[in-house]
Design a protein that fits this description.
- The complex is a heterodimer of chains A (336) and B (256).
- Chain A has 336 residues and is mostly helical.
- Chain A contains 13 helices and no strands.
- Chain B is mainly α and 256 residues long.
- Helix content of chain B is 62%, strand content 8%.
- In chain B, the strands form two sheets. Chain B has a two-stranded antiparallel sheet. Chain B has a two-stranded antiparallel sheet with strand order 3-4.
- The longest helix of chain B is centred in the first third of the chain and has 29 residues.
- The chains are: A mainly alpha (336), B mainly alpha (256).
- At the A-B interface, helix 1, helix 2, helix 3, helix 8 and helix 11 of A face strand 2, helix 2, helix 4, helix 5 and helix 7 of B.
């Protein structure tokens, strides 16, 4: 049997047009919620169009009509069978203050892993410097050439400067720092797709640089300068990179799927929202770190006493720790 | 070579999305790169003027623009334009959820952030290889986000009136033979005849005559119309009349 297409189209077109109008409306207003009657009508039209598609696919031979109905059914299918939230309006503050720490808590195992790799890198960097004087020149990349100087000489020069060298270009410097650090974080996250190998390498290398520079300043007796310079921005920057590593490891764990028998696509789908939240939080932390590094960290004694800078850095560290652990506090409060 | 993603709904209906291949996607990406460069150039020109007021702020804005625009371009367009960037729109591609569901923001974000891994070690090598090896033509970003890139097809209703016209169909004078023809013709054969008519202008003249002669002979073998009726009727006109019979019944014609 072959369908009489003109009659079939004439009879069914009103339903298709109505369904298309609802779909267009839902696409234009993602936050719109259908009333019970509207939802029933929508479901009825979807089923009717599905049945028409079934008839056309079986009895008719018109590819354009088939494609048209397939497209309608596919769009309606996406709206009817979607169970994940979308219509809910995104609240940036709620996302940052509630969702980000909650996800951080949920994936905290990956954070400890990321922290461990960074610490191993730091230890390696420190030992490399103690064992070999040329390690610094061999490991530190060209962009950190200023670090290659003798720490005591660098401290003397920077403390003697009447004005900060970035003075008048604070905003540019802050923007460059943000762009560079967020770029590094994205790479650290994305390399999770290499079964985590790339993420390990990125974190370890960051740790090596950190350990090398830290050990160099401490060995030269410039600990106060080092802590006063590093802590104000590092208290946000270093945890941010570690959280980016955490996101990379979450991805890698889903990719490897050890102990999880669900299909790869399902495993990745399950963690995608968490990974996106973590990387969004990292970006916010790094914007703050960039501002602090440009406008505060680069000013040294006597312009700003190290004690003040260190106190500021400690306060930031405590606040960040309290913020990241807020999900634990909330859970404890809820169970009481 | 490019496959398609078939989705079966709980209602028992199956529909398919044709997957986009790496070459088309690469072309779309090239167009997007040009758009990004243009956008950055225009913004930096504007910021150049702002530099007369505050060089520091202008430089800072430029550093942010050159970092944010390439990253945010794909995220913003794919989210706001329902899975299409400028390049994808021009090449009729669309990013979709791999299960046919609605595209979520975190999926758009993920597939664009993982692009860095796809670009390694250069020229989208990892992404290209992944796309070729993946059953759903997914690069690493698509795999992580649970998305696919499909060809977005035109969806318009067929216009049979334009194709078949409203000329008198002399075969209709023999309703019992018309009924037999409808009964004996399979949907696949009807589709072939319709498509041959739709694409008739694309054939070489010789091939066109040969094709319609073959089709006419086949349909004539299914129902024996009187020879005097077919005598002066060219093969192509006969096939056109057959398609008219198959797709438009007598009642529909009478209503017109």
């Amino acid at each position: 049997m072959i369908i009489d297409l003109p009659r079939f189209i004439a009879a069914e077109r009103p339903a298709w047009t109505e369904l298309e109008a609802i779909l267009d409306d839902l696409a234009l207003n993602p936050g719109r919620r259908l009333t019970l009657e509207e939802a029933r009508r929508f479901h009825f039209l979807y089923q009717k169009t599905s049945a028409d598609l079934g008839r056309v696919a079986t009895f008719a031979s018109e590819p354009e009509l088939l494609r048209y109905l397939e497209s309608l059914v596919a769009r309606a299918y996406a709206d009817i069978h979607e169970t994940r939230e979308r219509g809910v309006r995104w609240h940036p503050l709620r996302w940052l203050l509630i969702e980000f720490p909650t996800v951080f808590r949920r994936q905290v195992g990956a954070f400890w892993m990321s922290m461990l790799v960074t610490l191993l890198g730091t230890a390696f960097g420190a030992f490399a410097l103690l064992l070999d004087d040329e390690a610094k020149a061999a490991i530190v990349p060209a962009q950190f050439a200023h670090v290659l100087k003798d720490p005591a000489q660098r401290v003397a020069e920077e403390e003697a400067e009447a004005v900060n060298p970035t003075s008048g270009a604070h905003a540019t410097f802050a923007a460059q720092l943000m762009a560079n650090n967020i770029g590094v974080s994205i790479k650290t996250l994305a390399l999770g797709m290499t079964w985590g190998i790339g993420t390990v390498l990125m974190l370890f290398y960051n740790g090596v640089i950190l350990g090398l520079v830290g050990a160099d300043f401490i060995a030269a007796g410039q600990t106060a300068f080092l802590v006063g310079w590093l802590l104000p921005h590092g208290s946000f920057e270093i945890p941010a990179i570690i959280i980016a590593g955490q996101a990379g490891f979450v991805l890698a764990r889903a990719l490897i799927g050890r102990g999880d028998r669900s299909p790869l696509a399902a495993r990745l789908r399950a963690v995608a929202r968490d990974v996106a939240t973590l990387v969004g939080g990292v970006a916010v932390l790094l914007v703050w770190a960039g501002i602090v590094e440009s406008y505060f960290s680069q000013h040294h004694q006597p312009r700003i006493p190290y004690s003040l800078k260190i106190a500021f850095g400690i306060a930031e560290t405590v606040l960040l720790a309290a913020f990241l652990s807020s999900a634990w506090w909330r859970k404890m409060g809820a169970t009481r | 070579m490019n496959g398609e993603l078939r989705i079966r709904t709980p209602e028992g209906i199956t529909f398919a999305y044709p997957l986009a291949g790496p070459v088309t996607r690469c072309l779309a990406w090239g167009i997007d790169m040009l758009a990004i460069l243009t956008l950055c150039s225009v913004i930096s020109m504007v910021l150049g003027f702002a530099g007369m007021i505050s060089p520091d702020l202008a430089q800072a804005s430029m550093a942010i623009v050159f970092f944010v625009v390439p990253v945010a371009y794909g995220i913003a367009f794919e989210w706001l334009c329902r899975g299409q960037t400028l390049g994808k729109k021009l090449l009729r591609l669309r990013v979709m959820d791999a299960d046919g569901l609605r595209l979520q923001f975190h999926q758009v974000l993920m597939r664009n952030l993982i692009r860095f891994a796809d670009l390694l070690p250069g020229f989208y090598l990892v992404g290209g290889v992944s796309c070729l090896l993946s059953r759903k033509a997914q690069r690493l970003g698509d795999l992580a986000a649970g998305t696919i890139v499909v060809h977005h097809r035109k969806t318009r209703e067929p216009d049979l009136e334009q194709l078949l016209g409203t000329k008198f169909n002399s075969l209709r004078a023999h309703p019992h033979l018309c009924g037999r023809l409808r009964q004996r013709t399979s949907p696949a054969q009807a589709r072939l005849a319709l498509q041959a008519l739709v694409r008739r202008e694309e054939f070489e003249p010789g091939a066109r005559v040969e094709l319609f002669a073959e089709m006419a002979a086949h349909f004539k073998s299914l129902a024996q119309f009187p020879p005097e009726l077919l005598e002066a009727m060219p093969d192509e006109q006969f096939v056109r009349n057959v398609v008219d019979l198959l797709f438009r019944t007598g009642e529909a014609k009478a209503r017109e």
